[in-house]
Amino acid sequence: MRHIGALVVLLAPLACGEPFSNDVFEDDARFIEAAPRMRVFRLSRGLGEDARFPLLAAEPAVLYTATRAALMDVDEHALSLLREIDDLVEAPPDYRAVDARAWSPPRGALDPLESRLSVTRQGATMSATLTRRRPGGAWRPLITAEAEDEATRGAFHLDLDAAAALGLGSTRGQVEVRFNREATRLRMALSFSDYQPRPEASPYDTYMIFEIDDEAGLLDYGFPDEDGGWIDLRARWLNTGAGRAQAALRGEVELIWEACWDASFQEVYAASGGVEGGGASACAIEAL
After folding, report:
1. Distance of alpha carbon 253 from its chain centroid, rounded?
2. Which are the contacts of 166, defined by CB distance < 8 A and separation ≥ 6?
3. Where does 42-171 show beta strands of DSSP type E?
4. What is the mean pLDDT of residues 185-198?
5. Fewest C-beta in 10 Å: which of 161, 184, 240, 264?
6. φ and ψ at 222, to 5 degrees?
7. CA distance 77 to 196
8. How much is the pTM?
9. Which helix (H) or strand (E) covers residue 275, if one does?
10. Which residues contact 175 (CB under 8 A, 6 or more apart)?
11. pLDDT for 32-63, tens place per residue?
């Protein structure tokens, strides 16, 4: 089971075509919703609002731990740029026009970079761009986004190479995220190109499907393990905390491990290589 250990380490509605109100703050909010923020797209909220392990009497199920670790890892390395937008929109915009807003605060004494977030509206489409630069240098776009249909669908692109070149972390690559967003449901399809979450890792291409609503969540994700193999991780869970996951290791060693955990995150069923432990009837989710 040595390879399984690698698993563990791992927009308020827009004014689309509608006239603006007389409330400038309400109108600002419509532009803010077009800019992707970490508070909206943070993956690890799917398995707990604060992404911390609950207090348990025993160790949580390994595949529950692996699922949580995968979500937190993508939050930390691929999506962390979104926090730049969260921070900027805490203040009012520096520029307002009928179809545009911009945030360009003065550079802090200890901040080596200048920031600019611009959001524009053209018909039913809202576009957002976050750029940063060193003083006197060229502006480099780090995040570009488009949202339509009152922010219920859209896409955003994260240029992690540009961020790394400016000293904003060591993660490299390109990430494209397409999303559908409703009142109680969020679905995201992530595509990773030349993704290198850590300097010691080799760049790779991969995918992720993430979905959550007020009743359940799901994750499909592929990533390399520390021994040169490839892991496909599939997980489903209920809002009670109970869930089911399958990890398929491809490489010199072929291994499929499936397990279920209960609402206390304790393993109640496991199967690998034809050997089962516990009873499948204890699984809250019948099949993946």
Report:
1. 30
2. 113, 132, 133, 134, 140, 142
3. 95-97, 100-103, 114-122, 125-133, 140-148, 153-159
4. 97
5. 184
6. -120, 140
7. 9
8. 0.86
9. strand 275-278
10. 78, 79, 157, 158, 160, 190, 191, 192, 193, 195
11. 999 999 999 999 877 654 444 455 446 889 99
